[in-house]
Structure formats: C-alpha cells, structure tokens
Amino acid sequence: MNQQAIISQTADMLKEKFSDESSGHDWWHIFRVWKNAITIGKKEGANLYVVELAALLHDIADYKFHDGDEKIGGEVSKQWMQEVGVDSETIEAVVDIVNNVSFKGGKNAKKMQSIEGQAVQDADRLDAIGAIGIARCFAYGGYKGNEMYNPDKEPNLNMSKEEYKTQKGTQINHFYEKLLLLKDLMNTKTGKEMANARHDYMLNYLDEFYSEWKGEK
Ligand code: NI
After folding, report:
1. Which domain holds residue 39?
2. Ligand 1 center from residue 130 Cα (angstroms)
3. Where are the alpha helices (DSSP H) in the chain?
4. In this structure, how many other beta carbons lie within 10 angstroms of the beta carbon of residue 13?
5. Which of 58, 93, 154, 206 would suit a FRET pair with 17, their CA atoms being 20 to 30 Å apart?
6. How far is the CA of 216 from the centre of ligand 1 (A)?
7. For residue 33, how far is its CA from the centre of ligand 1 (angstroms)?
8. 122 alpha carbon to ligand 1 midpoint, in Å?
9. What is the Å distance from ligand 1's center to 5 Cα?
10. Helix 3-17 / helix 27-43 crossing angle, nearest 10 deg
11. Exposure string over 94-119, b if 16+ CB within 10 A, otherwise e
12. pLDDT over 80 (residue 94)
C-alpha cells in the first residue's frame, strides 16, 4: 500500500472505532486534529506522513480497551501500523508521539522533541480553543450537568488534580482555568499564530457573553 492508502485506511479504522464515542474524544475530534496537524506540519516543514499517522492515532488509548496503561496507545498504534505495512522508522517516530501526547502528566509532561510531535500536540490543543473549543466546552458541561455560568462562583486557578476531576465548576470558569492558558503552551510558530487568533475570538466571546448576561445588549 502506498502512503496515501495507508493514511486513508487508518482514518477509516478510527472513524469506525470512535463512531459511538460520545465524550469529547469522538471521531470528529480526531478528524479536526488531523486537519490542524496537516496545516501546521506543512508550514513547519515536518514529515507529513509521520504527522498524519500520529495525529490520527493520538487518542487511540482513549478507546475502550484502555485500562490505565500509559503505553497502551503506542502499542495499539504499533500493531496497527505493522498490519498495514508502515516502515519501521515511521512506526518508531509515530509511537513516540502517541505515547507522549496521550500522557496526561499535566505540568510535568515532557516537551515534545520532534517537530512532528510538536505539530500534533499543538493541533490537539488547538481543538480545545476558538469556536470549536467553546462548543466543546459547553457540550461537555451539559454532559457533566455543570452550570454554564454563575457570577457568584470565582474561577479556581490553583486546582489540584483531584479537584479538577471532581469539582462542579462552571463552564465559563473553565475558560480561565484552562482554555485561556493554552495559547502559551504552543510549541510551533504556526501553532502559536493559530492559537492567538482563536484566543482573541474567545475573549470577544466572553465580552459578548457578559454584556448579554447583564442585559446590556
Ligand atoms: Ni486529542
């Protein structure tokens, strides 16, 4: 199989596997990360074959058979790529990215080394901000039963990992606790530019939201 055929077969496999995932990590999240990663990878002169495969496979560990094993994403990716005939050098590069991007280590997560990994990580973070990020934020809040906004609740900027998981915050606070911080975590120049535009869009959105909340508009 040529590279293009391998990529489209990988996309088909993921579309099928993730079709019934209703959390934030459904097939369309993967699709958008894939598209963002291509845009970034092209501008940054990355190896697009590695970028595309890694973007497509980056959340494979979230698929149902994940049982807390951090390396599962890399292993499942490797098996799949061997099955469809990806060369070993590409496999190694992709596995490294998948293992690092899916590691939920928060502040201590190590920085992606390769430009391909940086492109995929930026692409994943971009999907949490801008118009898509806003939509995902409120969709997730609805799923969790969180309030959309409550002027009596302040954002909690020093949340522990436990609080982050268990606290019933508001979705507007989530902007301050996470979404507005993402632009400073971008690796690549292209990722930063895209993030800045999406960031400004969110700031405008918040202005509009507060004005409408107070009946000023
Ligand atoms: Ni993701």
Report:
1. 3-213
2. 15
3. 3-17, 27-43, 48-57, 72-83, 88-101, 115-126, 130-144, 161-166, 171-177, 189-213
4. 16
5. 93
6. 37
7. 7
8. 10
9. 23
10. 150
11. bbbbbbbbbeeeeeeeeebebbbbbb
12. yes
Distance of CA 166 to the CA centre of its chain: 21
Domains contained in the chain, number: 1
Ligand 1 mean position, distance from CA 150 (Å): 28
Segment 149-178 mean pLDDT:
85
- Residue-wise pLDDT for 106-148, tens only, equals 554 567 889 999 999 999 999 999 999 999 999 999 988 999 9
Tell me how far the alpha carbon of residue 209 lies from the centroid of ligand 1, in angstroms. 27
* Cα 214 to ligand 1 centre (Å): 35
Residue 147 bridge partners (DSSP): 170
Domain with residue 198: its CATH number is 1.10.3210.50
Residue of 127, 216, 196, 140 whose CA lies nearest to 172: 140
Say how far apart CA 158 and CA 118 lie, in whole Å.
Answer: 26
Q: Ligand 1 center to residue 15 CA distance, Å?
A: 14
pLDDT tens, position by position, 190-215? 999 999 999 999 999 999 999 999 99
